[in-house]
Amino acid sequence: MGVKIAAGSSDGIVIDQHFGSGNKFYIFELLEDGNFNILDIREGIDNKEDFLETYDEVKALGCNENSSGSCGSGCSPKEHNNDDLYSKVKLLNDCDMVLINRIGKFAEKLLLKNGISALEAEGDIKEAFSSLFKYYKRIKKL
To answer: How confident is the model at residue 23 (pLDDT cuts 50, 70, 90)?
Structure first.
């Protein structure tokens, strides 16, 4: 069984989306032999109903998206709609990892609270998957 990875990409070739402002994710399965298959393309935003974790639980982890400064993503937390962040996490809740160009601390904690790792990456998806394959083999997850 492989690892299910969402890549924030506008074209399925390069990782070029920020988690907060991006709206297209290519879903791949990284296989035990190092190859990967595309499983799905997900776009758009669902609604917040039935979201897996609550706002207060994530806020308690130490990242307040209403603070006046940046939360680590290079953009102000006020630039993003929190309902969009919740919906994106829900959209990807069956994935093990998200490869994304940039992600803020609040969004990263939302993902982690729902069992999804986040990794900032840029450039070619094939190169990223090659590195991930080596990593997963080393930690014996593939």
So the answer is: confident
Q: What is the pTM of this model?
A: 0.76
> How far apart, in Å, are the Cα atoms of 66 and each of 16, 51, 79?
26, 20, 10
Partnered with residue 110 across adjacent β-strands are none
Of the listed ranges 47-56, 76-85, 95-104, the one predicted with least confidence: 47-56
For residue 79, the SS3 value is helix
Contact 96, 5 (CB under 8 A): yes
| Residues 72, 107: Cα–Cα separation, whole Å | 10
Q: Quick one: tokens of 68? A: 């006046």
Torsion from C-alpha of 71, 90, 37, 105, nearest 10 degrees: 10
Cβ neighbours of 98 (radius 10 Å): 25
Phi, psi (rounded to 5 degrees) for 124 = -65, 130
Q: Angle at Cα 98 formed by Cα 78 and Cα 122, nearest 5°?
A: 85
